[in-house]
Design a protein that fits this description.
Layout: H1 3-16, H2 21-40, E1 53-57, E2 69-77, E3 83-88, E4 101-103, E5 110-112, E6 117-120, E7 124-127, E8 129-130, E9 133-134, H3 139-153
Antiparallel strand pairs: 1-2, 1-7, 2-3, 3-6, 4-5, 8-9
């Protein structure tokens, strides 16, 4: 390994020495796992299909970004594309009545509209199954999610002329 790479690892190690052991271990493990994903390129052998639910490795992120291995709805994918758009799900229904959280009708999960993101298909681990069947959202959930996505991601009006830009 060259000197520059060692320097980067040592600087990262110095930063990790300033946080608690569990946090440092979690981050170090994610760094190793991410390197495996990126460089060993284990491309999923199963089809990745819109509106179905898959286990995805979202890793260790910053702030309130969704982390860890979690279920996610495939919002959009194309067969020949190396990426897909996902909507992470909670592990329990939130029931918080926020318009950007959609509680799924037949699942104990909430779709987090504000967390929609594009990911590499290398992060898609496995289909989420119940009794051997890949889970998917029902038409009512599709309708509610599409409505919330439309509201969340439309451009806002320009501020009035009286405000300074």
């Amino acid at each position: 390994m060259n000197k520059e790479i060692n320097q980067q690892f040592n600087q990262t190690k110095d930063i990790l020495n300033t946080v608690d052991n569990n946090t440092a271990l979690e981050y170090a493990t994610w760094t190793k796992d991410k390197a495996k994903m990126k460089f060993q390129k284990k491309i999923p052998s199963f089809p990745i299909t819109n509106n179905f639910i898959y286990w995805c490795n979202l890793g260790i992120n910053i702030g309130s970004e969704q982390n860890k291995i979690r279920p996610a709805i495939i919002v959009r994918t194309q067969t020949n594309s190396p990426i897909c758009t996902i909507l992470p799900l909670t592990s329990v229904r939130l029931k918080d009545n926020k318009w950007y959280h959609v509680d799924l009708e037949q699942k104990n999960s909430t779709a987090m509209i504000e967390q929609v993101k594009n990911i590499s298909k290398l992060r898609v681990l496995n289909p989420k199954r119940t009794n051997g069947v890949i889970e998917r959202i029902i038409p009512k959930d599709l309708e509610n999610i599409n409505k919330a996505l439309g509201n969340y991601y439309k451009l806002q009006d320009f501020p009035s002329k009286s405000k300074n830009l």
